[in-house]
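Backbone-to-sequence.
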């Protein structure tokens, strides 16, 4: 497939349609914004290169095992995740739990806590590896679905690829294997359909802006950036949502926003949002069901 064919294949999945030229959507009770939180829980193998790094290797020479950067992530599962659980429970909120399939056996206590809290489980790859580097995508997707179904009793309806990566066939495989919505296509503020060779697949709006990987690990912004950016993001969506409802995603990782110097800013962001009427706090599956009920 040459570059033109590849570009066409991607664009053809999501035909262009401006937000002001669509059939009207309505959130229940006249709400303006549907907000969903995605808690990302991942399997970083200490034997391999880390997906993210906070500490550069000595003299620029990568070393394996990379103990400090693996431990940076592991802290999130030992401590940071539990702060998320407390923060959300204190406000009566449920998250979408984006889980590598392998974490169900690797971090069973965290997965059980999410299940008991009523969080929605969403597939997030089997391990934290770009889809381009997965030897058999179909098997990896199927293994993730099975792991989550075995742990929760229900297969996941949604999918977020590690790093939001997809090859030209990923969307087709997701639809064929029963996934109903995907978070990889960060191109809108309302759900939109994704064309596949068989089956229905919906893009539920995700974010690379109100996302602590971008804020804290990539851009290395101050600790309060998730509050400042998230508050400004929400306020504009709330304004625009008076004429057409919007979806806001808040994407967080235990090793980033679950640390002591950032968690209070996440709590303040939720309190700001919850201080407004005409807002629904949903999971990805609830947003999907609302959308399907609107469009038929």
């Amino acid at each position: 497939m040459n570059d033109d064919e590849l570009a066409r294949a991607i664009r053809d999945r999501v035909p262009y349609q401006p937000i002001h030229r669509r059939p009207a959507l309505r959130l229940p009770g006249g709400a303006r914004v549907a907000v969903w939180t995605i808690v990302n829980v991942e399997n970083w193998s200490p034997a391999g290169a880390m997906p993210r790094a906070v500490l550069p290797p000595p003299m620029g020479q990568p070393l394996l095992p990379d103990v400090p950067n693996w431990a940076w992530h592991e802290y999130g599962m030992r401590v940071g995740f539990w702060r998320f659980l407390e923060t959300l429970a204190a406000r009566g909120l449920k998250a979408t739990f984006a889980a590598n399939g392998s974490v169900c056996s690797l971090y069973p206590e965290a997965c059980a806590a999410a299940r008991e809290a009523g969080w929605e489980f969403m597939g997030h790859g089997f391990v934290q590896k770009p889809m381009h580097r997965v030897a058999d995508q179909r098997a990896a997707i199927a293994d993730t679905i099975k792991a989550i179904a075995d742990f929760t009793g229900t297969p996941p309806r949604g999918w977020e690829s590690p790093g939001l990566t997809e090859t030209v066939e990923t969307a087709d495989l997701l639809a064929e294997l029963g996934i109903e919505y995907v978070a990889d296509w960060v191109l809108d503020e309302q759900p939109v359909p994704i064309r596949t060779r068989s089956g229905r697949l919906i893009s539920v709006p995700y974010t690379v802006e109100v996302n602590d990987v971008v804020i804290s690990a990539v851009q290395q912004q101050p600790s309060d950036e998730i509050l400042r950016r998230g508050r400004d993001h929400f306020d504009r969506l709330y304004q625009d949502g008076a004429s057409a409802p919007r979806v806001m995603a808040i994407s967080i990782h235990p090793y980033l926003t679950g640390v002591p110097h950032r968690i209070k800013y996440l709590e303040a962001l939720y309190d700001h949002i919850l201080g407004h009427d005409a807002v629904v706090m949903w999971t990805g599956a609830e947003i999907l069901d609302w959308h399907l009920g609107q469009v038929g």
